[in-house]
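Give me structure tokens for this 138-residue protein.
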Amino acid sequence: MFIKLGNIQFVRFCTVGLANTAVDFSAFFILNVLGMPYLIAQVIAYSAGVVNSYFFNRKWTFGRTDKANGAEAVKFIIVNGLSLLVSSQLLFVLYDLNHRDLWLAKLGATAGGIAVNFMGSRLWVFTKSPQIKGDVWR
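Here you go.
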């Protein structure tokens, strides 16, 4: 059976994401129990897995072997910031506006964040840039 590269990447991305999600959920609920407002807890908890995510996804998920660079790191931060924004907005909508249980709202928000993060990582952050040689793109 033929499996597309994007499918393998997505499975690997989700595997790395499981570890990051465990850290995220644990930190989120610990901070919440300690009385921190849930949106602040969301930002801190989400941020806890970002560095791990960068290195494992860069090397294992997207197969980058070249040296990491500042531009790529900035793109990664932008995509993760957008993912955080999307997941925080979904959390607000599901929990505050639709009165879902907090853990269900968090689960839905996480799913939305995963979609944004994978597509941004695959199509922008870890894509191999075309090399210019003279006037020819290769």
